[in-house]
Specification:
By secondary structure, the protein is an alpha/beta fold. It has two domains: about 110 residues, no CATH class; about 270 residues, Rossmann fold (3-Layer(aba) Sandwich). The protein is built from 17 helices and eleven strands. It is elongated.
């Protein structure tokens, strides 16, 4: 066989009804497709068997994680080109809906893949895939399992990817700034939105490696309780806090948000944690945080969102993300999050969309990973490093194409008096926005 690439390309173009937008190189050395740009490499025939047994994204993801497919050239460009066929094609109202058994074109494609890939049984999924989970969805025990899968892969690995800030959420960029600058500015933005001052009690839900807790204590004099389900994160955060001399101001607990009972707090920050809560628990989450705040206290909820679905009942978690990255994670449309916060009693006073900021952040993280690739592989495994490279690069493209967003919700437990405590004009809308033009006598 010396024409595998040509046969695969013809098969893909017949199914898609359009030219394949990337060049393809097969295991036999053959190539087909556009002469310019990056190359999608199918290194082993067994990748085709994965697609036969798990058609779609999960089969492709397994082949990527196992190193059976790869990219030569710009990974972002490959993802962007394929997004136009896969993501955007699936969003069209006229996108065909076919039965995989009854449709003759798909039956013929399956036979062709079987001939190219060989009749052997399906390869086992890569070991990094999380396939077994115990307990009902979003119970305390199950949440602890899946959080450990994602976060307990080694603090040294996260330090390599995230950089010295150890902040694992969207940064807040200004032109020409560094990742460290942008993460500092994000933490400070949150502290200012919460109006932190010396002596305030702050609860940091999903505190990660302690960066927000440390910033609030060091720069604003707050007394902070940070909670996480990851023991590795907690151990790392406690050491950082002790080294900074902040142990008298910051306490880190391995604790579920549902088990925090020592309110009231003056402020609560939840940064990149609510994605783990799940739709079945989100109202409970909002109710719990509302109950933990004093009247007049503020919540800053920083959360990734997805675009609304035409049929919300049809929403399904991304199979690659669910199996390899954030098991049981769910994204909600921005409007749904806002509604539930209001239903819980909060007055939502501000929503700031930071979609482009997360794309920039992810590209920096991917750059850190690629720059230190050999060490990342030693710290985890080749498969784990490949998971993270694909997950972060694909997420960057998703933010850039407005498939997902990220938003900061500032909400207040407004007291009966109605005094929110917020200034009349807290926001600026352009780089040069200030007080506005000078008024004249005729205005």
């Amino acid at each position: 066989m010396a024409d595998a690439a040509q046969r695969l390309t013809a098969l893909a173009e017949d199914l898609l009804g359009s030219p394949l937008p990337v060049r393809l190189r097969a295991w036999d050395g053959s190539e087909a497709g556009p002469a310019e740009g990056p190359v999608l490499v199918v290194r082993q025939r067994r990748a085709l068997r994965r697609l036969l047994w798990k058609p779609g994204e999960l089969g492709l993801a397994r082949a990527w994680v196992a190193g059976e497919i790869d990219v030569e050239g710009d990974l972002y460009e490959v993802l962007d080109r394929l997004a136009g066929l896969l993501w955007d094609r699936g969003d069209r109202d006229d996108a065909p809906s076919v039965h995989p058994v009854r449709d003759p074109k798909l039956r013929a494609a399956a036979k062709a893949l079987l001939k190219l890939g060989g009749p052997l049984p399906p390869p086992p999924p890569p070991a990094e895939e999380l396939r077994r989970r115990s307990g009902r969805l979003h119970t305390r025990g199950r949440d602890k399992q899946v959080v450990s899968h994602h976060y307990d892969v080694g603090n040294d690995f996260y330090a390599l990817v995230l950089g010295p800030s150890m902040v694992y959420s969207c940064a807040y960029w200004t032109p020409g700034g560094t990742l460290e600058d942008a993460q500092h500015d994000k933490l400070d933005l949150i502290a200012r939105k919460l109006a932190l001052k010396p002596g305030d009690r702050l609860l940091d839900v999903g505190c990660g490696w302690g960066s927000m807790a440390m910033h609030a204590a060091r720069a604003y004099g707050a007394e902070v309780v940070g909670i996480t389900l990851s023991r590795e994160q907690a151990a790392f955060a406690r050491k950082r806090i002790a080294d900074e001399g902040l142990a008298d101001k910051v306490e880190i607990r391995v604790q579920d948000y549902r088990d925090v009972k020592d309110g009231p707090y003056d402020a609560i920050s939840s940064i990149g944690m609510a994605e783990h809560v799940g739709s079945v628990r989100y109202r409970e989450y909002a109710d719990d945080l509302y109950a933990l705040l004093r009247p007049g206290g503020r919540l800053l909820n920083h959360q990734i969102s997805r675009r609304p679905e035409p049929d919300e009942e049809a929403y399904r978690v991304d199979p690659f993300i669910d199996a390899y990255v954030f098991p049981d994670g769910e994204l909600a449309p921005m409007g749904r999050t806002l509604s539930i916060l209001e239903e819980a009693g909060f007055e939502v006073r501000d929503v700031e969309a930071l979609r482009e900021h997360y794309a920039l952040t992810l590209r920096e993280w991917v750059g850190n990973l690629e720059e230190h690739w050999a060490r990342a592989v030693r710290l985890t495994s080749p498969a784990r490093a490949r998971i993270w490279r694909l997950y972060m690069a694909a997420s960057a493209v998703s933010f850039e194409r407005n498939r997902i967003g990220v938003n900061q919700f500032l909400a207040v437990r407004t007291p009966e008096s109605g005094a929110s405590g917020l200034p009349l004009r807290p926001r600026r809308w352009t780089e040069t926005d200030g007080a506005g033009p000078t008024r004249t006598e005729t205005d």
